[in-house]
């Protein structure tokens, strides 16, 4: 009878140890995902004493910490083709001014153009602009007898410039000229056309820059942010202020 109890007692101890070991194994599997586990089981009077050990911080990459590094804007060149229409007949004064402009153009009194984007620069809160470009070969083409003369101007813009929506023109010559059109080539959107069909006076007669817009129409509510101030200024110049002689 005593022998059977001893055998049964050993079986109960083994069963208790097996069940406790199973719980330890299951606890280890369950708590592994929670960065903690149980180790060093110690038998003490048919019971299992467990020590709880926490794991240290686990190195991980958080999506909140991963930030894309913005690409640096690169500069590239675009070309503008400016078409001017010449007068059929010139008087003596106009001929003298034409030759004078051909000479002064070589020393820096040029026709200056600047592209204006439809987008706003987030830093300056102003429309994005290109560098100032001048019409090339003015003096070499001053004596051409053709009705229309094409001039080239090269602009430098950033890769995040956007689409040009306006262009400004400053005539630093003595004589006015008739600007027919401007076409800008080199943007991903394709050629951008600026129909001008206007006389551009000298800055000595009309200070300031002439503004010409592309042939892309906009409703007042849909006008891009980069062009709103220029649209208002151009409209004010066309209407006049009721003073002086137009």
SSE string: HEEEHEEEEEEEEH
Question: How far apart lie the N and C ends?
Answer: 130 Å
Rounded average pLDDT: 79
CATH uppermost class of the domain at 75-239: Mainly Beta
Task: Explain this structure.
17% of the residues are buried. Strands 4, 5, 6, 8 and 11 form a five-stranded antiparallel beta sheet that branches. With 246 residues, the protein is α+β, with helices and mostly antiparallel strands. The chain has helices at 2-32, 92-105, 225-239; strands at 36-43, 48-54, 75-85, 111-120, 127-129, 133-134, 148-158, 164-171, 177-185, 192-200, 210-213.
Fold blueprint:
Blueprint: H1 2-32, E1 36-43, E2 48-54, E3 75-85, H2 92-105, E4 111-120, E5 127-129, E6 133-134, E7 148-158, E8 164-171, E9 177-185, E10 192-200, E11 210-213, H3 225-239
Antiparallel strand pairs: 1-2, 3-7, 3-9, 4-5, 4-6, 4-8, 8-11, 9-10
What is the gist of this entry?
Belongs to the lipoxygenase family. It contains 3 helices and 11 strands, in the order H-E-E-E-H-E-E-E-E-E-E-E-E-H. By secondary structure, it is an alpha+beta fold.
């Amino acid at each position: 009878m005593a022998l059977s109890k001893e055998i049964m007692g050993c079986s109960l101890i083994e069963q208790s140890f097996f069940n406790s070991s199973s719980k330890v194994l299951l606890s280890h599997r369950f708590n592994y995902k929670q960065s903690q586990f149980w180790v060093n089981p110690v038998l003490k009077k048919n019971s299992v004493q467990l020590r709880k050990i926490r794991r240290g911080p686990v190195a991980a990459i958080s999506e909140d910490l991963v930030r894309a590094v913005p690409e640096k804007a690169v500069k590239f060149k675009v070309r503008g083709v400016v078409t001017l229409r010449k007068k059929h007949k010139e008087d003596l004064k106009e001929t003298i001014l034409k030759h004078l402009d051909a000479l002064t153009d070589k020393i820096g009194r040029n026709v200056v153009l600047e592209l204006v984007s439809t987008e706003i620069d987030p830093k300056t809160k102003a429309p994005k602009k290109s560098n100032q470009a001048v019409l090339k070969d003015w003096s070499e083409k001053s004596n051409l007898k053709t009705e229309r003369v094409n001039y080239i101007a090269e602009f430098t813009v950033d890769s995040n410039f956007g689409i040009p929506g306006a262009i400004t023109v400053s005539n630093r010559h003595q004589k006015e000229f008739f600007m027919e059109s401007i076409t800008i080539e080199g943007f991903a959107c394709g050629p951008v056309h600026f129909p001008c069909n206007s006389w551009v006076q000298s800055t000595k007669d009309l200070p300031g820059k002439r503004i010409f817009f592309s042939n892309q129409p906009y409703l007042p509510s849909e006008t891009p942010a980069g062009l709103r101030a220029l649209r208002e200024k151009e409209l004010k110049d066309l209407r006049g202020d009721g003073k002086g002689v137009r």
